[in-house]
Design goal:
CATH architecture: Alpha-Beta Barrel
Largest sheet: 6 strands, parallel
Oligomer: single chain
Helix content: 40-55%
Bound molecules: 6-hydroxymethylpterin-diphosphate
Structural class: alpha/beta
Distance between the termini: 22 Å
CATH superfamily: Dihydropteroate synthase-like
Order of helices and strands: EHEHEHEHEHEHHEHHEH
CATH class: Alpha Beta
Amino acid sequence: MGILNVTPDSFSDGGVHFGDPDAAAASARGMIEAGAAIIDLGGESTRPGADGVPLDEELRRVVPVLERLGGVPVSIDTAKAEVARRAVALGAEMVNDVTALRGDPELAGVVADSGAYLCLMHMLGEPRTMQRNPVYGDVASEVTAFLEERLRAAVDAGVPEARICLDPGIGFGKTVDHNVELLRNLDVVARLGRPILVGVSRKSSLGRLLGDPGATRGTLAASLGAAVSAFDHGAAIFRVHDVLAHVEALTIAAAVEG
Ligand code: HH2
């Protein structure tokens, strides 16, 4: 899954494609050529400390890009029902909701009615405050219990289970140690029987693990190490900025795994 943020403030690629839908669409097509199976298009940053974006502004960011992405498999990274509705009408095949259907009461219905795929992600708190001292007893089992409950809620709302993938939400209300522990115990989440999506690409925990306590992002090499390790622990979908490098690394990991 290649990341395409059309925001001024995403933690890693903020501003790169903001206000230039032609460049954004070209970048998406480049990621597909490099081996991405789907492009995750987002118009609202969820980095720690980020404020929300109003509906009309989010639509202004993503709609021109969606209109240029005919033939490209797209996931829309949004928590807003109206953004998802417009996106699926313009061809998006998946809704990636970092609130796991807790943000907008109408989103479940939009996904169910459209037949889109759905990603449910774990987050403790909300982006503005989520990194203020997150506390867990056992992070893997708590995240798994949350995702199990959200999976049931989505199915009860009419989204077929076979269309849903689950994401432990690396960096969303978690310390570096929580993120590492979660990746090490991904198989616990995978026991829910749904494909696991992991987004760890360039995240600050990677830079911090490499010894910089003030890191705001991680390197490519660190991202590849984390992705291969996540693969070994059962991840199936990788949300990444650097598609070709991940396709190459994961192709080798998969070959070794057999
Ligand atoms: N991470 C980010 C955004 N959306 N969606 C899922 N399912 N999983 C993730 O880990 C995830 C996500 C944050 O990364 P990014 O989009 O690069 O930055 P920002 O939120 O600042 O736009």
